[in-house]
Design goal:
By secondary structure, the chain is α+β, with helices and mostly antiparallel strands. The chain folds into four domains: 202 residues, Transferase(Phosphotransferase), domain 1 (Orthogonal Bundle); 105 residues, 2-Layer Sandwich (Phosphorylase Kinase, domain 1), CATH 3.30.200; 106 residues; 108 residues, no CATH class. It has 18 helices and nine strands. A hairpin with a 3-residue loop joins β1 and β2. α11 runs antiparallel to α12. The longest helix has 37 residues. The chain starts with a helix and ends with a helix.
């Protein structure tokens, strides 16, 4: 890493193409270089527990309590080192002490809340792998001058950031990248323990400190665990898409520490592959780190490492294994066995996929699958879809088709079970478990009481947002036989269709709810169909009204 730092000082600043050059030699083989001579860091300022504590340090020794007209008068700005849409970062020298700092100034007034949130987040943290906040300038005058200038005085790190490093020198050696990732995991774990989520972990937000250590910066998108609950999804999609966890697109209220696990995994992919994580390709990751990186960037948060403590432990174990593998013999054996395992898995998957296609053709002949399902299934598998997911899709479709047959449902499910069992013999415990579930559903069901079936449907409607908790309270107020309760459920569904917004979506959801009731309560299907007919007429009227409004809008635009 020292070699990369030394080389970076000699660069002329031109950005390299994204194509990845050969990785630099590992540190163990690199020539020993003298430690770069750097100016001593600014005097340590203990990181305060909260922003209020940081404000206590906002006056230099001997400075009057009345603020100067120029909030930045005590700082000589030397050069711009970074710039974004809301702020600009300059390397500056404190006139009273001569120490170098990083001065982050607010450029857009509309970003003041985010700017102060960043100050609040950094002020609550004290970790060697997180850039420290020394003081906040201008915040003491907010009441008298709400539009006045604001700036954060931060610890100066010579850099460069990791994005610039990779652009100039290509992918990093595995041990160097793991060391940086361990630093970041410890820093983020420290932040999470104090209730702060970073939400924007990426290489350009990580500075390279002397000695090759990582320094996490830019907490502009950080949120406390409690603060995120008050944000709406529409205001919480800020971030860098290539490094942003999928759930962040759904809103801040859905984000937890596993979003930072995703960001750190995507950052490690960038360091190890030299290319953007916009599309993750397994072959670009060194085989030793593949499973770790891929687990970090799983789409479903439940499939990732649960927290930074677990990820940090996995990173340290991996680094130990790589360090111990000095002879290269174990590495080549591991590579060969891993490649053999992957090839075997691919062969088995191809065989299972072909067997599943044969079974799908038979199920289509029984009209348990749509006629076009086998072709769609083949396309899905040829595009790289997992055959086990395709099997789940087939079983779900078969069950839905059989349910529409009413009394013939058990017989049809038994036929489907026989076809799938014959086609997929010997494909593993996962297939056997799926077929056992299908066999259980093929048994003649014991007829439950209408009240119990109605209760189960209402619970399902609540889970799918077709009914609200207040509807449940209104329905619970009714007493009497199940038919009386059914009338209450139909009334609440009708009200949801009439009052919901947008209108067409509300009617569609209500008709879906009626379909669920009709399937669960065939003895009252006629009454449910009466309600569905009324909603069908309402849906037609809503569609006609929307079409008329769209036509009027087009006429206005033409005139």
């Amino acid at each position: 890493m020292e070699e990369l730092l030394r080389r970076d000082e000699d660069e002329d600043g031109e950005e390299a193409e994204e194509e990845t050059p050969a990785p630099p030699a590992p540190l163990a083989q690199a020539p020993v270089l003298p430690e770069p001579v750097l100016e001593p860091p600014p005097a340590a300022v203990a990181a305060p527990e909260r922003l209020e504590a940081a404000l206590e340090h906002s006056l230099a020794p001997g400075e009057a309590s009345e603020p100067s007209l120029d909030a930045f008068a005590d700082y000589e700005e030397l050069e711009v080192v970074g710039s974004g849409g809301a702020g600009v970062v300059t390397r500056a020298r404190e006139r009273s002490t001569g120490q170098e700092v990083a001065l982050k100034r607010l450029r857009k007034p509309i970003e003041r809340e985010r700017f102060l949130r960043e100050a609040d987040a950094i002020a609550s943290l004290d970790h060697p792998a997180i850039v420290r906040l020394h003081r906040v300038l201008g915040v003491d005058r907010l009441e008298e001058d709400p539009e006045g200038p604001l700036a954060l005085v931060l610890e100066h790190v010579a850099g460069p950031d990791l994005e610039r490093l990779v652009q100039r020198h290509g992918r990093l050696p595995l041990l160097d990248a793991l060391g940086l990732a361990i630093d970041l995991a410890e820093a983020l774990g420290h932040a999470h323990e104090r209730g702060v989520l970073h939400r924007d972990v990426k290489p350009s937000n990580v500075l390279l400190a002397p000695g090759g250590k990582a320094k996490l910066t830019d907490f502009g998108l950080a949120l406390s665990v409690t603060a995120q609950l008050s944000l709406t999804p529409s205001g919480a999609t800020l971030g860098t898409p290539s490094y942003m966890a999928p759930e962040q697109l759904g809103g801040a209220h859905r984000v937890d520490a596993r979003a930072d696990v995703y960001g750190l995994g995507a950052t490690l992919y960038r360091l190890l592959s030299g290319v953007s994580p916009r599309v993750i390709r397994e072959s670009r990751i060194p085989y030793e780190a593949r499973s770790l990186v891929l687990r970090c960037v799983e789409e479903d948060p439940r499939d990732r490492y649960p927290d930074m403590e677990a990820l940090g432990a996995a990173l340290r174990r991996l680094r130990t294994r790589v360090q111990e593998d000095t002879s290269g013999v174990h590495r080549s054996l591991a590579r060969a066995s891993l490649e053999l395992k992957h090839e075997l898995e691919r062969t088995l998957a191809r065989d299972a996929g072909q067997r599943l296609l044969v079974a799908a053709a038979g199920l289509a002949n029984l009209e348990l699958l749509p006629a076009e399902a086998p072709v769609q299934l083949r396309t899905r598998l040829e595009l790289g879809g997992a055959w086990r997911e395709a099997l789940d899709f087939v079983i779900e479709t078969v069950e839905a088709s059989a349910s529409r047959q009413g009394a013939d449902r058990p017989r049809l499910l038994r036929d489907a079970h026989a076809i799938l069992s014959a086609a997929l013999t010997g494909q593993g415990e996962g297939v056997r478990a799926a077929l056992r579930r299908l066999a259980e559903r093929a048994r003649e069901p014991r007829r439950e009481s209408p009240a119990r079936r109605l209760s189960a449907v209402v619970q399902r409607l609540l889970e799918r947002d077709a009914l609200e908790p207040e509807d449940l309270r209104a329905i619970s107020g009714r007493s009497g036989p199940a038919r009386v309760v059914l009338e209450g459920v139909l009334t609440r569904i009708r009200l949801r269709a009439e009052e919901g917004s947008p209108a067409l979506r509300a009617v569609t959801r209500a008709r879906w709810a009626l379909t669920e009731l009709r399937l669960a309560l065939p003895e009252w299907a006629e009454r449910v169909e009466e309600e569905d007919l009324a909603l069908a007429l309402r849906e037609t009227a809503v569609r006609a009204r929307e079409a008329r409004l769209a036509a009027e809008t087009d006429d206005e635009e033409e005139t």
